[in-house]
Each structure stands twice: as structure tokens, then as C-alpha cells.
Amino acid sequence: MYEMKISEGGRVVIPAPIRRSLDLNEGDTVVWDILNGEVHLSTRKKQLEKARALFQKSTPPGTQPQLVQDFLNERRSETERDESA
Questions:
Q1: What CATH number is given for 8-84 in this structure?
Q2: Which residues contact 79 (CB under 8 A, 6 or more apart)?
Q3: What are the per-10-residue average pLDDT scores of the chain (85 residues)?
Q4: In the chain, what are the domain boundaries?
Q5: In terms of C-beta density within 10 A (0-12 exposed, 13-18 middle, 19 or more buried), how is residue 24 classed?
Q6: Which residues pair with 50 in a beta bridge?
Q7: Which of 33, 57, 69, 71 could join 40 in a cystine, given CB atoms 3.0 to 4.6 angstroms apart?
Q8: Helix (H) or strand (E) holding 8
């Protein structure tokens, strides 16, 4: 468990062990979720992997509907735009 102080503007520094564990680097995009009154931090890449796994579970083996592929392509484009901004 790590403690962090909130600085001016609501900024927090993610401790180095957490950054290393999540393979976070300067400029990376992170996703914050509030679940049951707790804050959860993950990477955009991890969120995309979760979405991909969820969709793949709901499709017959060996198939991937065009809708799912379109969604994944859109998310990749969004990630690339966010990372280049």
C-alpha cells in the first residue's frame, strides 16, 4: 500500500514501484475508475485488452463480427490520438 499527498491542482505522483509494475512511462494515458468507493488505476492498453477479451468470449470460436473489429479499430485510433496529443 502506498500513501500519496494531493498537491496543487489535485495532482498526485504515482509511486515508482506502481509505475514499474504497470509499465507506465511519462506521457502514457491512464484510466481511473471509481468502484464501490475505491479508486482503481489501469492503463488504456489494459482496458482495451479487457474489452477485447469480453467481446471474444461472446463470439463463436473462430469468428469475430465486423462490429467488434470496428470497435477495436476505433479504440486503437483514439489511443493513438491521445498519445500523440
A1: 2.10.260.10
A2: 29, 44, 45, 48
A3: 93 93 90 92 87 79 70 88 80
A4: 8-84
A5: middle
A6: none
A7: 33
A8: none
